[in-house]
Amino acid sequence: MASSHTSGLGLTGKLSAVSARHPWRVIAIWVVVTVVLMVSSGIVGGVFTTNISFTDNRESQTARELLKEWQGEPLFESLVISSEKYAVQTPEFKKFVTDITAALRKHPDKIDPAQTSNVYELAAVQPGAEAALISKDGHTTLVNARVLGDVDSAIASVATLDEAVLPFRANQDFTILRGGFISANEAFTTASEEDLKAEQYVLPIAFVILIVVFGAVVAALAPVVLGIVAIMLTIASVTLISQISPLSFFVTNIVTMIGLAVGIDYALFTMARYREQRHAGNDVMQSIAVAGDTASRAVVFSGATVVIALTSLILVPNTIFIAFGIGASIVVVFAVLATLTLLPACLRLLGDRIEGVHPAQWQRLAALACGVGVVAVPGPARGVLAIATFAIIFVPSIVRKVTRRGTASANTATTSIDDNTGFWAGTARFVMKNAVVMVIGSAALLLVLAIPYTHIHLGSSGPSSLPEKYEVRQAFTVLNEKFVSGFLAPTDIVIEAPDVKAAAVQVAIVNFQQKVSQDPEIRLSRPPVLSEDGKLATLAVALTGDLASTQAQDQIRRLRNEIVPAAFDGSGAKVYVGGTTAINMDLFDQVGQYTPIVFAYVLGLSFILLMLVFRSIVVPIKSIIMNLLSVGASYGILIAVFQWGWAPDFLGFGKVDAIEAWLPLMMFTILFGLSMDYHVFLISRIRERFDETHENTESVAFGLRSTANIITGAAAIMVAVFGGFALGDLVMFQQMGLGLAVAVFLDATIVRTVLVPATMRLLGDANWYLPTWLHWLPDLRVEKSPRP
User: Fold this and answer.
1) How many domains does the chain have?
2) Does the residue 189 lie in any domain?
3) In the predicted model, is pLDDT for residue 89 greater than 60?
4) How far apart are CA 585 and CA 557, in angstroms?
5) Which among 65, 85, 405, 449 has the fewest CB atoms less than 10 Å away?
6) CB–CB of 264/221 below 8 Å?
7) Are 573 and 508 in contact (CB under 8 A)?
8) pLDDT digits (tens, 9 = 90+) for 448-485
9) What SS3 class is residue 587?
10) Cβ(560)–Cβ(581) under 8 Å?
11) CA gap 289, 282 in Å, rounded
């Protein structure tokens, strides 16, 4: 009996059948793996960092490494001290600032006493230089202190600084705000954690959508569980990997986002095919085997395309791209493995109980729970719960009415996918009949939406992109209004020479200071300091404007290309410009350099894989063009919302001068991979039907009406997941969440429902054209072999 279920099956079908025959054994293996990874990661702990490092010797990285080797990380914090009652030059203000400086110097293990200074000390050493540290109205000044440690361990030093300053905050005559590189990192980390917590409220929306698609609570629960399992295993895995090489702290956000999206979608595709087989009268084991041989096989190739796209990020020699590429790829692999093995085992144990529990009573209870949450839960989660409440109350009836197939269970299904009736069947007929108009209209719409992309400005999130509640944002605002905001994160000038005390080098340093003092946009921040061995020297300058702005980048370029060469030419010294803004600019340049490489890698390997899977050169070319159209349209909407500020105010999206520099490349890899989910799933059903009937038009219509309901549900889940990130506090994740949600929506509606079927109708049998000189290629087709 068992052999009858596996005869004629491919690898994925056999794997699913074997997993279904030994369900408890499979579940036990997954439990053991999960426990081992979770316990191991808990014992070992993770090494996550908010630091961005280059691995290809960028100038800012060289400056950082030289300073780190000499005196540790050059991390400075600024205390912005203001008083409405006293001016900076009054004795009361001077005593207050002097006392704070002395309190900080009492902690030499955490705060460097030699590099802790105030305006009064600077005036004594460099008369006239103190003007840069006094606000225009004369009532605000700065105390700068270098905190000891690297980017991560310096958080403890900042905590010591806060303890030292705490008694002074009680003085009602003065206001103290802390800002700096560590303060900004700390704020971004906190906001990231809060945004990650808000994502948990997306699960109810995904669950409701699955209930709408399946019409059964138990069936809806299985994909959610598989998605959570994939996320748990991935987070444990990246925690262990971080022991080898520190990974970006934000990798957990990416893993959660991608894991929920693909984990639920892959299980959804396979379960839909399983239930279709059960509706057709096949027994449980046969249905699992067929689903494994078709839908799960599509999942494997779809997952392979996603992994190809995501691993391209590892090509970029930057720790944040490498971390995102590793984490996102691992969660996709776990999601695929769970779909191939754990899902069949669960389906075997549940049997027809997968259809259990009618959703009506759960719908009312869930709506009530979410409604209470809207009132009780603060922050971005409130918006998510509000959407969930609306979806729970209205979406089921709307979807049932539109599809006319409802969400009937195995016991009540009345419509076969072979029936040419219903909303999607009508849509398929309309698209087939008006194919030329559909292609021109949909392509034109996507191109129009992409137009704003031609005006994109790339940048990086500075403190100004944080919510107002963060102290570093407040400090930045004061500095930007009353000082040069670059004092929060000075630009380091690192000088390397055989002897920095040599006359030529010293003259060059003086020349540099003079040129900076004459520049209206750059200020001297710290005087020169020489290393004990005489091989290094450093000083710092402060840039005007937002540290992530185009203006600040232009100032870095001027320093590197004009001021530094003019001052140090002929001195025999090597000069490196580093610091936060220089790191950002090097990141922008790096992204621009590697974008063509990533595109070539993703598009090239995806073309090869799709050509092997569908035995056609037309399908992969068409797929690539359509994916690029949807990605371009999402880019355009992203620019219109965030850069141009076209979004309604109630959505809470922040208007920024520039889009995150890493975002377009990151979005491309994620979107190109995820959009292939729908494409592979749709084209595989079309090809399966074509091999049986050899009728292209009928096969395209069949593929559309048989997959549209599932693709719509899967896209709705992805939109909910990505939309959860868009409702967070961090502008960078707002941009990513909205961009991904819009792209998935466009891909599942305009592209998969209209553009793909219409072009396939026009191309006819040419869709499956493969030159004879390529017939030697292996046949890796997704769909079942044609019936004899």
Assistant:
1) 2
2) no
3) yes
4) 9
5) 85
6) no
7) yes
8) 999 999 988 887 767 777 777 888 888 888 877 787 66
9) helix
10) no
11) 10
Per residue, what are the HEC states of 192-206? HHHHHHHHHHHHHHH
- Give per-residue pLDDT as tens, 604-622: 988 988 888 888 899 899 9
**Cβ contact 660:732 at 8 Å:** yes
Q: 651 lies in a domain?
A: no
Q: Which H or E run includes 655?
A: none
Q: What is the value of pTM for the model shown?
A: 0.78
Domain end, chosen from 547, 578, 609, is at 578
Could you list the residue range(s) of the whole structural domain that residue 32 is in? 1-45+216-357
CA pair distance 89, 77, nearest whole angstrom:
23
Does any domain span residue 15? yes
What's the pLDDT tens digit per position in 621-654? 998 898 889 999 999 999 998 888 887 665 667 6
Angle at 715 between CA 710 and CA 717, to 5 degrees: 100
67 assigned to some structural domain? no
- Among 396, 323, 433, CA closest to 701: 433
Query: In which band, very low, low, confident or very high, does the pLDDT at 356 lie, cut at 50, 70 and 90?
Result: low
Q: Euclidean distance between the first and final Cα of the chain, in Å?
A: 23
Which single residue is written with the structure tokens 């990505």?
722
Residue-wise burial string across 612-643, b where 16 or more C-beta atoms lie within 10 A, e elsewhere: bbbbbbbbbebbbebbbbbbbbbbbbbbbbbb
- Highest mean pLDDT out of 151-165, 535-549, 570-584: 570-584
In terms of phi and psi (left: phi > 0; alpha: psi -120 to 50; beta: otherwise), the region of 238 is: alpha
Pairwise CA distance, residues 399 & 700, whole Å: 23
What are the CA-CA distances from residue 300 to residues 214, 289, 609 (Å)?
23, 15, 12
Q: State the pLDDT at residue 367.
A: 56
Contacts of 512 (CB under 8 A, 6+ apart): 493, 539, 563, 564, 567, 568
Radius of gyration of the chain (CA): 30
Buried/exposed code over 313-326 (b: 16+ C-beta within 10 A; e: otherwise): bbbbbbbbbbbbbb
Structural domain ending residue among the three candidates 578, 606, 622:
578
